[in-house]
Design a protein that fits this description.
Chain A: This is Succinate dehydrogenase. Chain A: Its main location: membrane. Chain A: InterPro entries: SQR/QFR_C/D, SuccDH_FuR_B_TM-su. Chain A: Keywords: Heme, Iron, Membrane, Metal-binding, Transmembrane, Transmembrane helix. Chain A: GO terms for molecular function: metal ion binding. The complex is a heterodimer of chains A (126) and B (223). Chain A has 126 residues and is mostly helical. Chain A has a single domain, classed as 3 helical TM bundles of succinate and fumarate reductases (Up-down Bundle), CATH 1.20.1300. Chain A has 5 helices and no strands. In chain A, 17% of the residues are buried. Chain B has 223 residues and is of the alpha+beta class. Chain B has 2 domains: 100 residues, Roll (Ubiquitin-like (UB roll)), CATH 3.10.20; 118 residues, Alpha-helical ferredoxin (Fumarate Reductase Iron-sulfur Protein, Chain B, domain 2), CATH 1.10.1060.10. Chain B is built from 8 helices and 11 strands. Chains A and B meet through α1, α2 and α4 of A and α5 and α8 of B.
Chain lengths: 126, 223
């Protein structure tokens, strides 16, 4: 079983239920966060080249592109977190009869937290 | 109405897609149409079927990307712009065309010995509780294996239907393999097995209930 088979199976969303699509998105956001962590390790290692090099790198993300990237990362984090809480509850065998409602609530919470976070990123942190 | 039926063929190690144009009533089952193609157009087409009324579980296949029993699926309900694509179930070795080798599923029954009857409790007037038993609803069609993203990528996984049978058997002891990554801990709650199950056997829910019972000690692990 190769990586291609695994990806094809995880991310096959055509004709799939909300539960499976959420499972796929949970995995995808997890993979994105793992790559972000690697990228972040790379960017903080520029400190070895001196504070100027690190500041120059950070300046790349100071403009509108930074807002987009920060908002995207926030959305990824929130979706992974809310779907992770849903997953933890049902995987422990609780609320199985209400899992669809729980999943819808998780998505609504995710969207609200994303909007709130983007608002903070645009108007408070910038 | 005229339908284009595209069938994934597998012969002598080669994969191809053949298109057959057929005249069919939208209320006809996909299995009826496949049988007609086999009789009238291509006698080498390989597929499985038996009961024709959704009980034997032999005719499970992927119809326009979704796992279904061909005998209880109306062609008019699943065709998109008159096109129906038929593929074998995923997660199993393809024998030929639409026929798969389900020994991956049946072979696992040697690991565990679920009872043949599901234990239920019947309540009369909400007062008297009468234990009773019924035959399992599971058709052993393999649709849950095909739909499950874990069973598709982790060949050692015992699989949704088998774990659900163990869960519903009501046994107080289960073998060690059930309490492992190959067993209940392999499930990651995608629930596609439950959504696609043609008899609403709810494998996903049953697996996670069994997991909870193992954690709480209501079901003991032996071996």
């Amino acid at each position: 079983m190769g990586l291609r088979d695994a990806f094809t199976s995880w991310f096959r969303i055509k004709g799939r239920s909300l539960e499976h699509v959420s499972f796929a998105i949970r995995r995808l956001t997890g993979i994105i966060m793992a790559f972000y962590l690697l990228g972040h390790l790379v960017d903080i290692t520029t400190l070895l080249a001196g504070p100027e090099a690190y500041s120059q790198l950070l300046n790349l993300f100071a403009g509108p592109m930074g807002v987009v990237i920060d908002s995207f990362l926030w959305a990824v984090l929130v979706i992974h977190g809310t779907l992770g809480i849903y997953s933890a509850i049902v995987e422990m065998g609780f609320l199985l009869e209400h899992r669809r409602k729980l999943l819808v609530i998780a998505w609504i919470c995710a969207l609200l937290f994303i909007l709130l976070g983007v608002e903070v990123i645009i108007n408070v942190l910038r | 109405m005229r339908y284009k039926v595209v069938i994934r063929r597998y012969k002598d190690g080669r994969i191809s897609f053949d298109t057959f144009e057929v005249e069919a009533n939208p209320s006809e089952s996909v299995l009826d149409v496949v049988e007609r193609i086999s009789i009238e157009k291509d006698k080498t087409l390989v597929f499985e079927h038996a009961c024709h009324h959704g009980v034997c579980g032999a005719c499970g296949m992927v119809i326009n990307g979704v796992e279904r029993l061909a005998c209880i699926t109306r062609i008019g309900d699943v065709a998109r712009n008159g096109v129906v694509v038929l593929e074998p179930l995923r997660g199993f070795k393809v024998i030929s065309d639409l026929a798969v080798d389900k020994s991956r599923m049946f072979g696992r029954y040697r690991h565990v010995a679920p009872s043949t009857l599901e234990k239920l409790e019947l309540r009369l007037n909400n007062a008297v509780s009468i234990p009773r038993e019924k035959l399992y609803d599971c058709l052993e069609c393999g649709i849950c294996y095909s739909a499950c993203p874990i069973a598709n990528t982790f060949p050692e996984y015992l699989g949704p239907s088998l774990l659900a049978l163990i869960s519903r058997s009501g046994n107080e002891r289960v073998p060690r393999v059930v309490d492992s990554r190959r067993g209940v801990w392999g499930c990651h709650a995608a629930f596609e097995c439950s959504v696609r199950c043609p008899v609403n056997f709810k494998p996903g829910e049953s697996i996670l209930k069994l997991r909870r019972n193992i954690i709480s000690g209501r079901v003991r692990v032996e071996g």
